[in-house]
User: What shape does this take?
Amino acid sequence: MALDPQVKTVLDQLASLNGPPIQELGVTEARALLERLAAIGGPPAEVARVEDRTFAGPAGDVPVRIYRPTDDAGPQPVLVWFHGGGWVLGSIEGSDLTCRDLAAQSGVVIVSVGYRLAPEHPYPSGLGDCYAALVWVTATAGDLGVDPDRVAVGGDSAGGNLAAVVALAARDRGGPAVRFQLLVYPVTDALMSHPSVRDNGQGYMLTDDSMKWFIELYLGERGDPKDPLVSPVYADDLSGLPPALVITAEYDPLRDEGEAYGTRLQRDRVAAKVSRYDGMIHGFFSMGAIVDAARRATAEAADALRGALT
Assistant: This one.
């Protein structure tokens, strides 16, 4: 399918800025740019309450933002959400609109996690914070007003990677129990070995060069790109993992590795659905204000969450 016209407008507008590639900006400027782009989304969806908190992580306090779609009494289902940004960029604030949309449409409480970022904190720092967030949510479920038996993990891009590997870690460490995983164009292969990296590696926002930069910063000196907790597609066995929805985009360098992970889940008898959005690019999921397909993808994700958790 051809590139979606709404997405092409976004790409044309970005190209008109004549800015350097993100990896040439440096970490500080790249982070600031992503926050500016996130701020131009549409009006925030209405939810009943939003609360900022912290919990004691493996290396200090970790911030979280809790989105409550209603004031209903009783334990509510919950999604622990990890933002994207290549493990280097991104924030709770930058994923605010996405989390509000998911909470409002699914009726599920969203706990958005501000995990530590590379290069200041390379692998496995961010993963440690994300797994600790899952443990904290289930351990303090009563105080949070959520149901420890109806917990999902999810995220987009690098956040999708973290959701997948947190689910793996939870299986292998004997818990906490995860009911569902929402993986939006996840990174699953840090070796960048799939054909879509070459086919879609230039001209569609996320580039192969920027992915290489992100991975190098995330792995630092000690990370192994074939470690299943870095690249879950290389795990020997995916059986026993929770059901998954894997959302991919046709013109995304990460398309093939996301779909390969979905196929591996299915092969190992995990109930996994792979949903490709034709004409879309990496990052489209957060473009609901201007891209119709993004609203459809968010609705699909919300429906899957509601079906799995309620």
